[in-house]
């Protein structure tokens, strides 16, 4: 059995995808998602100005949904929907493509993958808007600012830690043969909620070397990295490497 940790709104759909692929999976949510209407309103106001940004970067499905809501009521919707958009992964891109005409994503679906895209080095890409969750993807803003880009950031949601994890089925850690964690925060919270000595001896799968390095500092030894954070990418990796 695999242990998959996702935020609460994504948990059931992800576990269902894993099970439909034939992977016995226990889902664990340690965080919930809280929208931040004030930041969403500020993003709407920003997009209604006469001078639009050159590029939008959207770092999650939750950020994409907030952006789409902003566009619904935007008087210059056609102009905004023509802006180039970088989505961090496939699920985020799928959420944006019904609204935006030019959506791309990096081959490596991480902040580092976004920063390596040629579009960010173009001379006509000076004003960039990042739409993200509170406290996440700070390296994006810092690196782009260091490249002399004008960066506006809108944190349209926050992750809140649950008092007790939400699980999709009753199971013991002793039944788990591998752990999938797609962010540093989810991985760390998992180690806080469950006996860490039991989790550290298991193989882990995550989606960036940055998260892998964080896990190593917490005593996890066996860590692999998948190039994508989508359910389909993780499932394919597991079938090719753990099955």
TrEMBL record:
One of its GO terms (biological process) is uroporphyrinogen III biosynthetic process. GO terms for molecular function: methyltransferase activity; uroporphyrinogen-III synthase activity. Keywords: Lyase, Methyltransferase, Porphyrin biosynthesis, Transferase. The keyword Glycoprotein does not apply. Pathway: Porphyrin-containing compound metabolism; protoporphyrin-IX biosynthesis; coproporphyrinogen-III from 5-aminolevulinate: step 3/4. It catalyses: hydroxymethylbilane = uroporphyrinogen III + H2O. Transmembrane segments: none annotated. Its EC number is 4.2.1.75. It comes from the Bacteria. It is an enzyme of class 4 (lyase). InterPro entries: 4pyrrol_syn_uPrphyn_synt_sf, 4pyrrol_synth_uPrphyn_synth, UROS/Hem4. Catalyzes cyclization of the linear tetrapyrrole, hydroxymethylbilane, to the macrocyclic uroporphyrinogen III. PANTHER family: UROPORPHYRINOGEN-III SYNTHASE, CHLOROPLASTIC. This is Uroporphyrinogen-III synthase.
């Amino acid at each position: 059995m695999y242990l998959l940790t996702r935020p609460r709104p994504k948990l059931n759909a992800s576990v269902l995808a894993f099970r439909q692929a034939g992977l016995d999976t226990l889902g664990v949510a340690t965080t919930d998602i809280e929208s931040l209407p004030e930041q969403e309103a500020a993003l709407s106001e920003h997009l209604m100005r006469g001078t639009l940004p050159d590029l939008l970067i959207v770092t999650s499905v939750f950020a994409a949904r907030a952006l789409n809501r902003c566009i619904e009521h935007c008087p210059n919707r056609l102009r905004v929907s023509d802006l180039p958009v970088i989505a961090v992964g496939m699920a985020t891109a799928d959420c944006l493509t019904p609204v935006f005409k030019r959506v791309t994503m990096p081959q490596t679906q991480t902040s580092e993958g976004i920063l390596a895209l040629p579009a960010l080095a173009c001379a006509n890409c000076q004003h960039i808007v990042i739409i993200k969750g509170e406290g996440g993807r700070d390296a994006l803003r810092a690196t782009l600012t260091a490249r002399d880009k004008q960066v506006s950031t809108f944190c349209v949601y926050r992750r809140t830690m649950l008092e007790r994890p939400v699980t999709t089925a009753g199971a013991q850690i002793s039944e788990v043969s591998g752990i999938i964690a797609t962010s540093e925060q989810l991985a760390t919270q998992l180690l806080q909620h469950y006996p860490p000595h039991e989790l550290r001896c298991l193989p882990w799968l995550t989606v960036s070397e940055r998260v892998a390095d964080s896990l190593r500092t917490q005593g996890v030894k066996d860590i692999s990295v998948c190039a994508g954070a989508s359910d389909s990418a993780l499932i394919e990796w597991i079938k090719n490497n753990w099955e």
